[in-house]
Each structure stands twice: as structure tokens, then as C-alpha cells.
Amino acid sequence: MRDRAERGERSGQAARASATARQGSPRQTATSSQHARFLALHPKAGNAALSRAVAVQRASGRDGGSSSSSRSTSPDADLAYGSDHERPPRGRGADRRSDDDALAYGEFHNEGPYSGTVGGVSFQTERDGGLMKEVRDFVARVSPHFQEELAAAGSVTVRFGRADGGGVGVWKPDSRTVVLNHLQADVRRAGPGRLFGAAVFELLNASKQRRRARLDHQVKSGEFDRLAEREGLPPEKYYGRKVEYIEWKNVVIHRRVMKDARLKGSVADMFSAEPGDFESYYKRQVEGRHTHGYEFYYNLLRTQARARAERGEPGSSTPTSPSSSDSE
To answer: Are 185 and 86 in contact, with CB atoms under 8 Å apart?
Structure first.
């Protein structure tokens, strides 16, 4: 009797186990290492953690298997190059962003293209058109406070892209384009107002392009060396100082524009903490090695001018000018 009872109990346990298997096993408490990382990261504050979590979750294939992606790099490698948008993620274009970025930061605009103008300035984009329209509308709002500079800038196109030096904005004189990086870390932290302020500053830089061209002509002709000697400075140092002075004047104008537009102290008023005198500004630019790029460009101009003179070539052409940028 006891043997039959034990056999019956074992038979019942087997039946219950079989039924459980058919109905689906209860969720196991143990998870894959990647899933565990996701669960650990998700509650943490900060966009970088959430971006990492999304990438890890995607790499796990959502079904516990390995990713079907053909990339040779791991999600961690991608994030190391792309989470703060200081460098382009591997295998991605300079002006593209991944869905991971959009999910992490909640900024997946993707409204499609936009085209608009303010005077001679054209605002163009193939995607994130809503944000570009906000940039255009901001420039239109403050334009009465720097009409002379806008007129001097002439025909300029504003686009989204990656700015030189990892900054928010850059003026590219050769293509007459202002490039704004709407994915840059400062924009992430401070909001679109940072982008608006950069747009105004780069348009101010565009308005001073003729002054820069005259300066470069003096360098190519050799006249600038004589001016530097008169000032008692090495010519490359004097050139860097002169270019920084042009940009400092734009900083002063930018602060005035923000004040007159009743935006003083706003995110767009990005130079509100700048010292009011040129010498303090210049010292900070030198210490940050911003001026170094202009000194290098002076030497490039002179080297090319001498080479053309040795070959007996009439006239000269200017090499690509370093961009004026608010990134430093």
C-alpha cells in the first residue's frame, strides 16, 4: 500500500510539472548579465545612463539572445564616442543621431524639412524642421537690435551639423554657412536657447568677414609683419590678437542685443559672464588655446605667400580660413 501511495505521489508531481511546462514557466529571478545592467542603470538619473541602458537593451535583442547587428563595436564603444556628441559615433554621419539618443533625451523632432528666411539669411534643414523654425523665429525676434550687422553679413545659410572644435556653432566663410550643432552637450544641458544665442553670435562673425579678409591680405602682402614690428610683437601673436579683438567686439554686440531684446540673463545670453574688457577676454582665449589656431593660420598664410613669390606667381589665393566659433 505504501509503495502504491509513493508511486502515486511521484506520478502526481510529474503531471503537475508537465502542466506547468505547457502553461509557461514562471519568470526566473535570474536575468542575463546585459538585462541586469539595464535594470541597474534604468533608475539612475541622467541622460547618459538611460542612453547606455537603451543601447544595452537593444544589443540583447530583447529576447535574451545576441544582437543581430553587424557592427563590430559594442554598445559601450558606440556610447563612448557618441553619448555627449563631442565626437561622431563610429560608422555614423556627422549630422545623424541614433534612436538611442532620441529616446534618452526626448528630442526626436524629425518633423521633416524646413526653409525660412530673415533678411538675407536662409535657414535650411532636411530634418528637425520644427527646431530650425524656432532658430529662425528667434533671430527674427531679435533682428531689430542688430540690423546693421545682419545687412553686413549678406547672404548666409544656417544649417544643422557638427561644428568645428565640438562647439555649438561655427561660421564657415568659404561656404558662407553657419553650422549649428543641435546635438551638442551644452544644448542638451541648457536647452534650445543655447542654440539661439550661438546663431546670433555666428551671424555677427559673418558680418565681420570683410574685416578678416583685409587682415589676411595684409599678411599675404607682408605689410602685417611691419605693423607687428611697430607694436613690438611677433607677427603671429599680433595676428591672433587682432582676430580675437574682432570676435570680442562681437561678444560686446551680442550682450547688447540680448539686453535690448529683454533677454539679459537668459540661456541665449551666453556671454553674460564674460569680463567686460578685451584684455581679460584675450587672456582667457590664449589660456584656452583658442588663439593658437589663429597664430597657426598666420604662419600658413605667410608660408604659402612666400612659396608663390618664389615661383614668381602673380597674386595669391587665400587658404581655407579657420572658422570663427563660440566653442571655446
So the answer is: yes
> b/e per residue, 24-47, with b = 16+ CB within 10 A?
eeeeeeeeeebeebbeebeeeeeb
Euclidean distance between CA atoms 157 and 180, whole angstroms: 11
Backbone angles phi, psi at 249, to 5 degrees: -60, -35
Distance in angstroms (rounded) separating the CA atoms of residues 197 and 193: 6
DSSP string, 35-97: HHHHHHHTTS-SHHHHHHHHHHHHHTTTSSS------SS-HHHHHHHHSSSSSPPTTS-TT--
User: Hey, which residues does 124 pair with through a beta bridge?
Assistant: 115
What pLDDT sits at residue 274?
86
For residue 150, give every residue at least 6 positions away whose Cβ sits within 8 Å of its Cβ, in sequence order, or none: 118, 119, 120, 121, 143, 203, 207
- Please choose, from the candidates 135, 265, 274, 282, the residue with its C-alpha nearest in 3D space to the C-alpha of residue 200: 135
| Nearest residue to 132 via CA among 182, 188, 60 | 182
Number of Cβ within a 10 Å radius of residue 119: 16
Indicate the residue type of 152: A
Angstrom distance (rounded) from CA 240 to CA 188: 31
Q: Residue 328 and residue 325: Cα distance in Å, rounded?
A: 7
Q: Are 171 and 229 in contact (CB under 8 A)?
A: no
pLDDT digits (tens, 9 = 90+) for 184-230: 999 999 999 999 999 999 999 999 999 999 999 999 999 999 999 99
Residues 6-24: tens digit of each pLDDT: 555 555 555 555 444 444 4
Lookup result for grid cell 582665449: 285
Q: Tell me which residue has cell 599678411.
A: 219
